[in-house]
């Protein structure tokens, strides 16, 4: 299977990998939120900066129409993005959220065993 020019092959492979990760994101949208946001962003930017001007100027060729049609599937990704997390109110976590993490269970067990040994 020939992928053409090496740069085009790299771009195609990266887009396939990103699309596969975005499909996983349809099942796990919170865990894959950065991937979903990136996938949405580049498609919306391409549609607005490349496809829309060509479409308005009647300069859209067949290949561009095919890419635009594929990029328009971004509406599915936009529909599953958990926007309450993406809004910034809960994601990314504020810096102070890391200050109040619970102690790992192992440390608590060691402290409890140390206290028991001290009582003996």
What's the gist of this structure?
With 120 residues, the protein is an all-alpha fold. Helices cover 68% and strands 0% of the residues. Keywords: Membrane, Transmembrane, Transmembrane helix.
Helix content: 55-70%
What is the residue-mean pLDDT, rounded to a whole number? 80
Order of helices and strands: HHHHHH
Structural class: mainly alpha
Portion in beta strands = under 5%
Strand count, sense and barrel status of the largest sheet are: none
Number of domains: 1
Distance between the termini: 73 Å
The total of beta strands comes to 0
| Number of separate helices | 6
Please compute the radius of gyration using only Cα atoms.
Answer: 24 Å
**Shape assignment:** elongated
Tell me which oligomeric state these chains represent: single chain
Transmembrane segments: 7-26, 32-55, 67-86
Keywords: Membrane, Transmembrane, Transmembrane helix
Topology of helices and strands:
Blueprint (H helix, E strand, L loop, with lengths): L5 H22 L5 H24 L5 H10 L2 H7 L2 H4 L18 H15 L1
Which short descriptors sum up this protein?
120 residues; mainly alpha
What does this structure look like?
The structure is a single chain. The chain has 120 residues and is mainly α. It has one domain. The chain contains six helices and no strands. It has helices at residues 6-27, 33-56, 62-71, 74-80, 83-86, 105-119. It is elongated and about 85 Å long. The model has no long low-confidence stretch (mean pLDDT 80). Keywords: Membrane, Transmembrane, Transmembrane helix.
């Amino acid at each position: 299977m020939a992928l053409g020019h090496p740069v085009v092959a790299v771009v195609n492979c990266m887009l396939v990998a990103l699309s596969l990760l975005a499909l996983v994101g349809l099942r796990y949208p919170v865990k894959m939120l950065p991937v979903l946001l990136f996938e949405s962003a580049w498609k919306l930017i391409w549609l607005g900066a490349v496809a829309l001007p060509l479409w308005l100027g009647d300069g859209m060729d067949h290949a561009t129409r095919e890419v635009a049609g594929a990029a328009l599937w971004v509406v599915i990704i936009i529909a599953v993005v958990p926007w309450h997390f993406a809004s910034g109110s809960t994601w990314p976590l504020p810096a102070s959220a890391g200050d109040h993490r619970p102690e790992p269970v192992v440390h608590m067990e060691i402290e409890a065993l140390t206290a028991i040994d001290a009582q003996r």
